[in-house]
Each structure stands twice: as structure tokens, then as C-alpha cells.
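Pinned message: reference record for GNAT family N-acetyltransferase
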Amino acid sequence: MEQPNAQITYRHAKTSRDFEIAKALFIEYGQSLHMDLSFQNFDDELNELPKRYGGSTGDLILAYVDQQLAGGIAIHRFESGVAEMKRLYVRTQFRSLGLGHELVARILASAQSMGYKTVRLDTIPQMKAAQKIYREAGFKEIAPYRYNPVAGTIYLECSLDE
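Predicted structure (C-alpha cells):
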């Protein structure tokens, strides 16, 4: 969808309303995968968004195009010095505007400002466009660091020192 004059804005989730909007977006994301995310405790995550992705150890960024919710991304503390990126999602009608690249760049900058040295993620094989974005952002393949039952899951890591 070409929108050359579109007004694109990004908002860090801070208010309960922001997190409710993010929850609806993440539910849409989960449905788009056509798979059961219970192995990731997805329902618990949805009910704990401010705790998981707020405060001084997490962030959640929402993207808007002409004031319409277009996408989002989040990070949370995984272990000391390491954040985990979760839930990169851009609604279909807003793809091709570069939002995915910008969301990743912004969340990596946020992670670095919070003192994280590394960001990890896991991605499933069919998410080719997201994998391209991750690799272009500097992510490299690593050994599995968490359980994911999906065959062919790819584990990636980006050093924020480079």
C-alpha cells in the first residue's frame, strides 16, 4: 500500500490505554500465525503487558499511519544484559511502508538506552519478511536459547556494542 504522504508516528506504550491497544494488536498478531502460542504462555503475556514490557526493563512501541494503528514491537529483560525482542507485527495494509525496519531500529535503540548489550529473538520459518529485517538490522543466527516446538525455528541475536 503506497502512502507517500502518510503521517507515520511511533508511540512508546505508557498508559493503560496504550497497553490495551497493544493487547488487541498482539491478539491479531497471534491469530495471523495460525498456530497455538500457549507454549509461550501467550495468554499470561497478554494479561501482563505493562509488567512485562513497561518500566525500566522493557519497552513496547506502537506505530501509527495517519492515526491508524499499523504495527508494534516489544522487548523485555531476558537475563542480565540481554533483552528479548517479541511480537514484531505490521498490519497487512501497512506493509511496504518500512514500518518493520523502523520498529526494529527503534526498539534496538531503546534496548541500548536501557543498558542491554544484546537482544535475542526466535522466529518461525514462514516469517521470511521479518527474518530479512532482522538480518539487515545486524542479527546473526545462534544456538537455541529457549524452547520452541515449531520445527525449523530460527534463533537470532544482535550485539548492541557493534
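Pinned by admin. Summary line: The chain is about 35% helix and 30% strand.
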